[in-house]
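call fold(seq) -> tokens
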Amino acid sequence: MEWNHQQFPPVDQVGIQERVARFITRSLKKETKSKALRLALSMIDLTTLEGKDTPGKIEQVCHKALHPCDDIQGLPLVAAVCVYPIYVSTAKKCLENSSVKVASVATGFPSGNVPLNLKIEETLYAVDHGADEIDMVISRGEFLIGNYNFVYDEIAAIKAACGAARLKVILETGELSTLDNVRKASELAIAAGADFIKTSTGKIQPAATMPVTLVMLETIKDHFLRTNRLVGMKPAGGISTSKVALQYLVMLHETLGERWMTNEWFRFGASSLANDIVLQLGKERRGVYFSKNYVSSD
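ret:
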């Protein structure tokens, strides 16, 4: 299909940096901070994507998803557990009868350098085994040489293979070089049917950054103003502290507003972030930090 993208002016890099600098100076206090921390916890896609993953490791991560800290009553559960396709059925069984979704990477993660028929097969495998969400990677090489229709058609084909599962499209922004490319890739993914756009695989540095995320949020906002269609956002990789997560939530609220302040439309791709949030909430409750023995090391 021919992708006729709208022409937007170049991204104002100085303006983006200035806005990010303002976001990171904001401070949340007491009840507002506690509420925001709980919201951030509910937005996490708890992730294990290692070559050494085993069924036992997946079960451990799922237990953590269902029991973030039994010493603090009323904590929200995380949004999802994200695993390789081969472990989807294990995660699905562990998380049954809970609100936690099963997400699966697909399409030759993390490089994406496999033929389309194999990407579709892998997506269908994950969905058939119970995946609620698919995190796909775009073909960055094709994008960078300007073969936008190739990338568009791949995303559209994977979206069709997802069926009822929601599709998160990973741009791998650390390989896109410029904010203008991030903007263009975001537009392309949304036009091709992405339910979410996502910064990174977590395997390439830099991963999620606030300037990149702000450009993606602005693209989502512009699309919504044109079409009234909501698209989700997932910064992933490198967000490991509560302080940084709260800065992202401030940016989200001031850019997209209240409708996006839910795990239906915003996620953090993280693992250690959940531990830090639990420790911060423990301090809010007791006035002192919990020992790190209260949270898992994974």
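Residues 29-294 form a domain with the TIM Barrel fold (CATH 3.20.20.70).
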